[in-house]
TrEMBL record:
InterPro entries reported for this sequence: Rossmann-like_a/b/a_fold, Universal_stress_UspA, UspA
Coiled-coil ranges from the UniProt annotation: none
Protein name (record): UspA domain protein
Pfam families: Usp (PF00582)
Gene3D superfamilies: HUPs
Family of the protein in this entry: Belongs to the universal stress protein A family.
UspA domain span: 4-141
Superkingdom as given in the UniProt entry: Bacteria
Amino acid sequence: MTISKVLIAVDKTATAFKAAKLGFSLAESLKQAEVLLIHVIDPVWTIGDPDSGLFPEQASAKLRIETEDFLNQLIEMFGKNVKAFHVVLEGKIVTEIVQTAKNYDADILVLGVHPKTGFSRLFMEDVVKEISPLVSCPVLLAYDKE
């Protein structure tokens, strides 16, 4: 199996740095591999706060700009020697990651996993469990050991 397309899906936590570092290191070691770095904005995060004057459209635009900056930062930190692109998507996290892996024809998918407790841990485990059987490429997990 030749790996020429690495898809890295990140959230905006410390784990994103581990996933990006792992994915970009893998791509760099493979010489000809390129990276697509993605972040999915769940519509729930763009509700805004109308009481303070921040409406959904504004919240979405603000979050998109912050996310673009974050992805650019990851590429600057870890992807200097790799052909890299980034995309900010909006929708259901699992659906968007699976669809992007298919459309991009990813050879490997890198995900960050943080061993939290409670709801966030269950949420991340569910995302990984849902994605793994739906993609046709191997899934590499970057764990954040707290």
